[in-house]
Amino acid sequence: MTRDAAAIGAGLDPVRVARRIPEGERIHVVGAAGAGASAAALLGRAAGAFVDGCDPGVPSPYSAALDAAGITVHPAHDPRHVTTEPIPDRLAVTKALTAVDPDHPELRAARDRGIPVEAWQQVIADAAVGRRLIAVAGTHGKSTTAGWLVHLLVEAGRDPSAFVGALLPPSTTGGVAATARWGAGGSFVVEADEYAGNFDAYVPDLAVLTSAEWDHPDVFADAAAVGEAFVRWLARMPDHGAIVANVADPGVAGVVGQVSRAQGPAVIGVALADDDGLAAGAATVLGRITAADRDGTTLELRGLGSDPRPRVARLSTAGRHNAANALCVAAAADRLGVDPEAIVRGLGTFPGIGRRLERVGEAGGIVIYDDYGHHPTAIRETIAAIRQREPGRRVWAVYEPLTYHRTAALLEDFAVALGTADAAAIADIWAGRDPDRTVASATGLAEAVARERPDMTVEAPGSVDATAAWLADAVRSGDAVLVMGGGQSYRIATGLLRRLEETG
Does the predicted model carry a pTM greater than 0.90? Predict the structure, then answer.
């Protein structure tokens, strides 16, 4: 059963045209310790607002940046946050809350007082007013691509501002690790999420579309519905804008085919081509992987700048999907007027972002990685990247499923993807905004993987902490453990490493 964006965002004010944040405006952020909401708080503060927030989940991986910025985050929700002086001028909140509790007492108190209640994306859109807005969208790869583009622009001296849905390293933010960056340059990069109209607040001058595939089955009935959402969003762009599109992705090719039939933004196609030149005819910027090893990937690029000669970038990342992301970054930077040599340097020096094939550590001969992968395609590609990074090791796929409906709708696809590893462990499902526990279970997914790979060790140990404890006894020296998921799966990675270090 699907719900439309209005139902998911029940009680929120409609998306409006972005406006500059007035100096001294008071903004209260509910759920401020989340990845996106914390960025809204940081960018609102940087733009001149007084910002505070609340979140029973503090501390979180994102709250350290709020502490460093001096933003108060109360550790509990309370209607008095909006009824006690000084009264906020507006309240920003995530749809993860309105999807399950649209009549939340704090939101209700704000509406009763006539305080606007908006999605946190509106704050970010307002903070970007006066800059050139670059929005990176797609089912997969948008965080990596957005973070990579921000890094490249920083290295090229462009001093961008940004929101990315994963922690940017201090070398990129200029301070502590955070999901936001504030710069003096003219570019503002945002990660644009298609879920329930989350990207509707953004009207970009330059859009980047990495992939388009069926996801969020609680909102989109099928792949066609996902494509239609992207088409509607891109259709709002100004005619002078441009779309960088990974046309080697079938879903993206379908989206830009519909967009390009009408007068509007220019389409800059990018594609990874195989040796036979596959997709070359559809792409303006073309790439070819010439080498891939544990230390990275060598990528040959054509189509940057006015010089037809190929350029070679040595990427520190692994995986074909990351080479495709690099092409999107290169084409976007080229459109922004970055010198091709600076583009090649920026591609090669990217240090990565949080929870994207992130090496957590090694103990007892066992290496542990953490990744946000929570869709079958992302899981399959990330397992392939681990095999490039850690050749010869037994690969564990450790997955905390994200939402019950996604797990149920894509169960067999998950089983096939997880079955490309050598062993698997499935933690309890992270419900998030989807509390219907009747449609799927971790045990059911583990059984599906076992049917796909009867020869494979597969277990569903329980909670993230129970999964870490079980793995500590199951892994052996020489293994590579890839932890994936969008909830609290990072605790499996850190918990496993701690246990292995304690046992020597």
Answer: yes
